[in-house]
Amino acid sequence: MAEEKKTKEEVKEEKTEEVKEEEIEETPLEKYKKAGEVAKSILQHLKGMAKPGIKALDLCETADKMIADAGMKPAFPLNVAINNHAAHYTSPWEDELVLKKGDVVKIDCGVQYDGFIADTALTVAFDDVHNDLIKASKEATETAVKVIRAGGYTGKLGDLIENIIEGYGFTTVKDLSGHLLLPYRVHGPKSIPNVAGRKGNLILQDEVYAIETFASTGSGESHQDRTKLYIVRLADGRFPLRTDSAKQVRRLLEREYHRLPVATRWIYKALGPAKAKMGIRELSNVGALYQYHVLSDTSEALISQHEHTVYMTPEGPIQTT
Ligand code: CO
Prior knowledge:
- With about 325 residues, the chain is an alpha+beta fold.
- The chain has 2 domains: about 30-220 and about 300-320, Creatinase/methionine aminopeptidase superfamily (Creatine Amidinohydrolase); about 225-295, Orthogonal Bundle (Arc Repressor Mutant, subunit A), CATH 1.10.10.
- Helix content is about 35%, strand content about 25%.
- It starts with 7 loop residues before the first helix and ends with a strand.
- The chain binds cobalt (II) ion (CO).
């Protein structure tokens, strides 16, 4: 079809639009991609750094520094989940935990650029006996990343994921799932189950998902370790606070981290250990903090994890990490 001849006004209008376009800031997809590039390069760097004898704290602080150097912010603290730990371990203040030869180490990195989040994870081990365990979650995630489509249901991915992981002779970690990413929100109201037989949620265009799968040599059940709390975030709602320490912690979290998960060690570093400890305790007591306790399978279990972030376009998924 022939193009209609343009009037002088239309040509003029187009020109002003062109100028405007140059001033328009990056699209969400471009920001998701930039955050993804940073998260990906950090993960590759940490993969090379993770060796027996290395401190978990060194991995965490390296991630913190690389995110800051890239001019971005963490979407959540680096998770270093060793062996039967499934999630929510980040080094506490002055952590002495050291990686050992037989360890299976999951490294999960979250970066945000103006609230647009990249969430990606991989597993490192130092003994070839763990190769299949690592391959199982890697293959499950990579397959799901390829087949996820707008218009489909997340439950279908659960069927696929469980099938692959059980095919290797492992179990999936049932309580953990992939999740919708929203601006400044790591866990949106839709999830991608890691087990078969669920309907799940309808996947829409322009949505962004973190697909993360886990393979366990244990039961696949996970429990919260109430003694290990290294990640928190501000809860919604207003809570009257008594002490200056608690008010300072709240102010710090509001100013720097929105409602995103925060490492307690960051609070210790910013306010000093005494104030941080007191403040966190009061905020926890009044319900002002959402608490991410360390999640573990039974003590002898070993777990691997693999995760990527995908942006849903009409043509299919774009992996940003
Ligand atoms: Co995730």
